[in-house]
Recover the amino acids of this structure.
């Protein structure tokens, strides 16, 4: 959506008056070279790693622009709380990124989905 001529002109105008011209130039380069999907994919891969380990490195190369950072996740810590409370042998793991879709599919099998629908305060 940002790759329209109007948006590019606006970003170039901002770049000319910005105190951070180089940063806006890099952003424009990402847009012009259709690198948004690369960013999305790299972030998704980091999120997948963070679902099973407490920390990960995020490294992304986009032409001349290279991004290197780290991150952490509370998912292993949350799992630890459940293990402490319920016991590791009572926990099941798998398909973590499909669990919401799986739950919705199970709800869809119900004869009456009314209890699962969000109710507005006025109803």
């Amino acid at each position: 959506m940002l790759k329209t001529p109007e948006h590019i002109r606006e970003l170039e105008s901002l770049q000319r008056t910005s105190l951070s011209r180089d940063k806006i130039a890099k952003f424009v380069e990402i847009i012009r070279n259709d690198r948004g999907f690369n960013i999305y994919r790299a972030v998704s891969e980091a999120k997948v790693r963070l679902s099973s380990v407490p920390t990960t490195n995020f490294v992304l190369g986009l032409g001349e622009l290279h991004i290197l950072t780290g991150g952490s996740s509370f998912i292993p810590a949350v799992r630890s709380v459940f293990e402490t409370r319920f016991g590791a042998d009572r926990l099941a793991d798998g398909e973590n990124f499909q669990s919401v879709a799986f739950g919705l599919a199970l709800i869809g099998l119900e004869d009456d989905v009314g209890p699962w629908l969000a109710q507005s305060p006025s109803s």
The CA atoms of residues 47 and 84 lie 24 Å apart.
